[in-house]
Design a protein that fits this description.
The chain is an alpha+beta fold. About 25% of the residues lie in helices and about 30% in strands. It has five helices and ten strands; from the N terminus they run αβββββββαβββααα. A hairpin with a 3-residue loop joins strand 5 (about 75-85) and strand 6 (about 90-105). The protein has helices at about 1-20, 120-125, 155-160, 200-215, 215-225; strands at about 20-25, 35-40, 45-50, 65-70, 75-85, 90-105, 110-115, 135-140, 145, 150. It has a six-stranded mixed sheet with strand order 1-4-2-7-8-9, with no helix packed on it. The radius of gyration is 26 Å and the shape is elongated.
Length: about 230
């Protein structure tokens, strides 16, 4: 009896973990009205968000949708379809589509869903390696942004085949918080040292060459500026 209760408790914890939204912003937890919510179908594998890997974004084996909580703003999400099909009742085949590049531009309180044209059978799924029709949709307004076509996922098979379209792209390390594309750059601390050129012959030579390129008017303006420093 105790073993049965332990198993049931473990399953309950797993279900709760799958249902919990993944928070990808810094600071204290916010309610959904303060964040941008993005829903990802279970058969979509997210590779990157704004060029960064995000933890906990698994594919098959989780709930129908996985919910991401992000800061409001602009995001580029790369993802691909992954499906398992029965082959003649004796084998299975895992099919991965091309990568889709989803564009999401949302405000606080908005909910966006990543979606795609689902295959009806194995042959249709295989054709998604050549073309993957996908989009991001605002669930409230119905606004729909078509995803751009990407290359093939960078799997062990594509690496062995040497596919040019599956060449790895620069991916930032996994991040627990992801900034929107339109986020202002982080400011330097007030007492941060200013950038400076080293004092050596190469610097002096470069300054002399720049001086020779200046017009008489530019030289006069520079000398006036220097006298005020």
């Amino acid at each position: 009896m105790r073993n049965i209760l332990c198993i049931a408790f473990a399953l309950l914890l797993t279900a709760c973990a799958q249902n919990a939204p993944i928070r990808l912003y810094e600071g204290a937890e916010r309610n959904p009205s303060q964040v941008l919510v993005v829903r990802v179908p279970a058969d979509l594998e997210v590779e990157t968000i704004n060029g960064s890997k995000a933890p906990g974004l698994g594919g098959l084996g989780r709930d129908e949708y996985q919910t991401l909580h992000l800061q409001p703003g602009d995001y580029e999400i790369t993802a691909f379809y992954k499906g398992v099909f029965d082959v003649m009742g004796v084998n299975t085949e895992v099919v991965r589509s091309r990568i889709a590049v989803f564009t999401v531009s949302g405000q606080a309180g908005e909910v966006w869903t990543l979606d795609f044209k689902r295959p009806a059978n194995l042959e249709e799924a295989r054709r998604m390696r050549q073309r993957f029709d996908a989009w991001a949709a605002n669930t409230a307004t119905g606004q729909r942004i078509e995803a751009r076509q990407g290359g093939l996922p960078n799997t062990i098979t594509t690496q062995l085949l040497g596919s040019a379209s599956a060449a790895p792209t620069a991916v930032k390390p996994a991040a627990t918080s992801i900034q929107p594309q339109n986020a202002p750059p982080a400011s330097l601390p007030h007492n941060a040292p200013a950038a400076s050129l080293p004092h050596n012959d190469a610097t002096l030579t470069t300054l002399k060459q720049l001086w020779e390129l200046l017009t008489p008017e530019s030289r006069q303006a520079f000398l006036e500026w220097q006298s005020r420093q």
